Amino acid sequence: MSLLFDAVLCLLLLAGALGVVATGAARAAVIAFIGYGLLLGLAWVRLAAVDVALTEIAIGSGISGVVLLRCVRALPATPKAPAPNPLLRPLAAMVSIAIAVALGAAVLALPEPAPSRAADVATALPATDLGNPVTGVLLVFRALDTLLEKVVLLLSLVGVWALSRDPACRGRPDPLSLEPAPAPSAFLARVLAPVGVLVGLYLLWAGADHPGGAFQSGAVLAAMGLLLVMGDQIRIPATQNRGLRLMLLAGPFGFLAVGFAGWATAGVFLGYPPGAEKAVIIAVEVAITLSIAVTLGLIVLGPPAGEERS
Amino acid sequence: MSALLVLAITAPLLGLVPLLLLGPRTGERAALGMLAVNVAITAGIAERVAQGGRALGYAVGGFAPPLGVGLRADGFAAAMMLMAALVLLFTGLFAMTGPGDMTRKVNARGSAGMPSTFFILLLSLACALNLAFLAQDLFTLYVALELLTFAAVPLVCLEGKAGQLSAALTYLLFALFGSVLYLLGVVLIYGLFGTLDIAHLAGLMAHGAGGWTAAAALALMSAGLMAKAALFPLHLWLPPAHSGAPPAASAVLSAVVIKAPLFLLVRLWSDLAPLPLAQVAGPVFAVCGAAAIVFCGVVALAQERLKLLIAYSTAAQIGYLCLMFPLAASSDGPWSALAWTGGTLHLVSHALSKAAMFLAAGLIAETMGHDRLSGLGGVGRLAPVSVAAFGLGGLSLMGLPPSGGFVAKVMLLTSALQQGSWWIATVVLVGGLLAGGYVLRVVVIALQHPDSDLPDVRECRWRALIALALAFGAMLVGFMPLSPLPFLEIGRPLTWESVLP
Amino acid sequence: MSLLASAFTLVFVAAGIGFFAAGTLGLVRLPGTLSRIHALTKADNVGLALIVLGLLPQAASVLDAAKMVAIWLLAQLASGAVAQVMAEAVMAEATLAEAKDAGDAAPPEESRP
Amino acid sequence: MTGVHLFGLAGAALVGCGVYGLLMAPGALGRILAFNILGGGVFLIFGVVARRGAGAGFGADPVPQALVITGIVVAFCATALAAALLVRLSAVDAEVARDGEKEKET
Amino acid sequence: MTADTLAPPLDLSALEPAMPILSEALMVVAIALPLALAFAALVPAVRRALPHVLALVPLPALIAALAVPRGLSVLVAPYPFRFTLALDAPGALLLGGASLLWMTAGAYAMAYLRQDPARPAFMVWWLLTMAGSFAVFLVADVASFYLAYALVSFSAYGLAAHDDTPQARRAGSLYLALTVLGEALLIAAFVMLASGATDANPQIRDAVALLPTSPWKTPILVLILLGFILKMGLFPLHVWMPLAHSVAPVPGSAVLSGVVVKAGVIGLLRFLPEGVPLPGWGAVLCGAGLFTAYYGVAVGLTQTHPKRALAYSTVSQMGVVAAVIGAGILNGTAGTFTIAAFYAANHMLLKGAMFLMVGVAMASSPRRALAAAAVAGLLGLSLAGLPLTGGAMAKYAIKLIVPEGMSGVLLTLSAAGSTLLMARYALLVARSGTEGTPPRGLAVPALILAGLALVLPFLLFEAVTGLPAAVAFAPSALQKGLWPVALGLGLAALLAWRAPRVPEVPAGDILNALGFLGTASRAIMGGAVAADAVLRRWPVAAFALLAIAVLLAATLTFAAVPL
User: Fold this and answer.
1) Does residue A48 sit in the same domain as residue A179?
2) Domain residues for A69?
3) Where is the MrpA C-terminal/MbhD domain (chain A) (predicted)?
4) What's the farthest any 2 CA atoms get from each other in chain D?
């Protein structure tokens, strides 16, 4: 029964992917991509990776989808790039199928029993007082990756801002719509946003021991922020706003500060003070979540339009 | 455990705080300060490695690999780091707002410093490069490569012109294609061995374990790295991106950014892959490298714009390092060590000389208002120091003494001849001829009488001197003795033993 | 007891799936964006409600059950509001197209949601 | 054949789809989407590797799962940056075209 | 009669305790002084003072040539660089000759370029070329030789292209292209040569000693011969020389034709093993030299400008030098190299003086030009080996090496050709007068150099050959020396009386027949650019990326993985 479900899910995934790749129309392809992301989220649940499922749906499908939809809207209806020579199509198909087949064979041929670090993690996790092994890996054992991933996120925002017409990257990003928000949007923003913020904070809190964590929470918070912007409930902040920038920096540099503090408390960079691991980790997660939420939201909003003349 | 390794990654990031929170001038000064600190840190690492005669290591968070992530600096990595740090510092100085930029008296055409964003990206590059040189975990290296790409792409399009934006987009997309192939290799490796730590993997793979899946994983990772390094025939993005960017950006892109994937390619095949595999893969890279040297060299000769010429020269010069693979992977001790040293010295001297050339070209273009070769006659009179920097940098590309390029060329030639690789020796020589052609073409034009009236501007002298300093750096590398450098052998073969407690 | 709960779940979830299927069919087959939105929101909301209801006996704790109900409520809220926004957009486009002189210049709008 | 195998094959097929898209997509947006499909396939294989490594009381090896989370975020950053570049490029192109037309008129 | 017997003429042994250090310092300063001045010229004050002292810069080199004991070598930079200087007999001869030419031509150049706004740039190139030329004669290790050789070759471009006319640009570009080619040939040869030695940068002498047993003997010799012959301008690699030497300003031409080509000569002398018979190689070199000796004369005769005639004469004379060296290594004759260097030094001074006389004549009224032509003619006859001139001593010396027989006869006959060409040159000089009196700054250095060129061979003959100078005055020797010159003069008279109308062969002769090479290279570049445009298209590059991944995986799987 579950095998049948998995098979159907896989086929749907494949159909979704083919739909994205084969569709000529940009908007339809993006919509298909969002659907593909949701299906992928289901696949993650089936693979006992609820943390990943949440991340995939929130980031890979949700926020990415919003970014891509905005992109489609900004592009001219008729793309100027000529399609590759259609004669290449069979060749491309052959190459792709060959790669897929080889890869499939490689995956099936992976050794049994599978090598795994699960045992190592299980041994080391109790010392951190965390219940969720994925959070343990992300924030303790491979904290360097996570720290740098925060820098990547910040850097991609810098990259987006660098596309501003203003070399100093000042001012507010253009509003999502030039017209005032329709009443239902405003209503939704007013009602849903507080609940959503609560959900986001819950995800953060739960992440220590259950699926969830900074990224999933940050994505939900960012979505709530965007909802408020779309509902005309808050104004898009100017990028040079000092408070905003502090929020951007809180995550990566709060994390970095904790890393340095580890030298004093645990004798090693990115070590946690013995006994207070969980508290410090949650503090780090709060800072990270704040930054992620703000960064994701600003990435969706795009480059600032330059200093306003007031 | 050496804290310097951690500082090498984190110190450049600290410079981001003032850049994002304080005014542009303060931020710029802080950034330059951090770049100088970065040089000090990398020099410290190199000094420790040389003193101790063994690699430095650090287990981040106190968790040793394979569960945790390890950092490790051997001689090769330390040399690369120091080189990159120096280039970044000099480029940063070149890009700063200097005396005269405000008054605009010196430069009628305006040779202003770069915006704060440039310095944010420069510091991020410093972090990413140090990470790429130090990290020993294949996934951390993936993060480092992505960090590098995301810092490099906006550099291409800082001025927001249409050509730059489209070059940046192609660069980004192709780099992403490369990184996703790399990641595919990484997942296969993890599936096979359950670890991503290079030292552990080297031990696990030593006896051909993993079979064809491991081979496929290595191939995928290599292809991804080649795409990021723009190795022929995957160089589609390099000429427009490197020639379109502002000069300071071009300099770091050509000099150091593409060196990180090349470095990792070397790491992959000299430290991770077992020798029999490396001996099979070596010729494949060498063929690509040879094609790059010859083909891109010829295309560089045909260019009509100075910056494009230099960009194609970069695409060609990448090939030299790839010639090293089959030579270094041989079991012929001294000659493979010589090739290894030659390849590394080429990497270093190319970085210094190419940075000098791009900076000089930027100043030349700024002085003349364009970079069309046909209209550059007599620019030697307006921008003598820039032309000198270009020429001295070119000396290294041509492989003429005294320059790092010469020493590297002699070492590669010697190793190739001793191992009977006549075709590699021929390619090295032909590459030198082509480089001579395109470098001298520019120098000759610059020294000619002007065909029309020269504009009434002068080169920005202090910036030209920075370019000249880099060119002299490339020449200084030429005073290396012509024998394998023991420093580069420190910490090989790769192991955590005696590196981590 | 567990058998009864299972039967309850089976019935309600099956009904919910039926509603979902109907909604999807409507999405695919019905003409016009407005009617599609209508089919989608109405049928799916009922479908979701039935599924949640069906799953309630399976919940391990009252808190879990409450969470499921909360999910249903949130989905109600979101789909209702989004349907409204989309409908308004459709109407606005329609009026815009009319004003633009009855459709010879303007290309037919993409009508997929 | 188990579910894990199925997902492994699906991952491989998704990689194939992504590769096809990267080869044949006419424009940058298509390539961005194809990159995401390809990335999804790679991540799915990570998931399969993780699931296969279940043990020690965990339903899956947590290390690859954590890697995927980081990978998804990095892929998102790439997508966002590419999309922003694309938007800006088309805006600049439009401006250039407009300026060109204006010049023609005068 | 071996090389080491050529003792330094200036005996400084009185300074004994300080002698070694003094010698070392002299050699270093000889190279370092012009080099340092070239860089110091960046300072305006130095730039202004430089014209007054330019003629004195080669002085340390001259003293070094005169005083430094033969065979002394100085380790300038310690292990592992082993940057070494040494002075042997051939090096001393060429160094001394070169320093004299640089001094007189330096004084001449400052007068010649008095009005030229680009004089400072010329001086910088001048100093760099000078430093390189001295270094080439002095260095003893392989890497430094390559460095010095590159320095003299590339800096000479600045002298050749100074006038920046379209012809000069073309000549300069060709010169650079062939120089780069020569560098590539030589580096390959040097790397092969050095890799037999234990040191990474061996002494030239040690490396060459290993050459006869090297597994790469043939490629090394091919590359070395090609590389240095290119610089000496042997047919068919001479194409650049008439172009480059004739477009430079007169003093530039003088040092190019006098000194810079000798870098090729010293290269052959340094890198060919002396005293080891290399029959095949010797024959090839000798044959090529002899052919070039005649070829240069034949083409030179058609020239209508004295500088181009002189340039072709240089081609011809370098052919003679190559023939001598070839004959020497054919049999492994000891002393060959010193005599070849003696002949080359003789040519150096004569050719320098002859170029300078062209400039003198061009600044003279037609009547005064006749006087200049007379001096020029005398110099020419000396070059051709007219008995009782310095040149005759050099001719006598080389006949000690070249055996009687075919090559000997041909070599002797080539003197007739030289005479003919020199007569043509003197005629052209006589016709090149314009108006005015040549400034003293031109005439005096030219005449001093001419005097030195005519006299010095007498003084050096005994030291070089070990024979008393009187042997060259024996009646049989006089007669042997006279008849080719007489024959040449007779032919010249014949040609003057009834010259066949031969069109002037454009400088660079066969180069013009190689025009298709230019077309071909343009086509290759065009093709590469077009191919690049295809390769850089997205789908193509994306396919290539996947192809590399697949090919690499397949290669690894099938070639290496134990299944």
Assistant:
1) no
2) 1-73
3) 11-76
4) 77
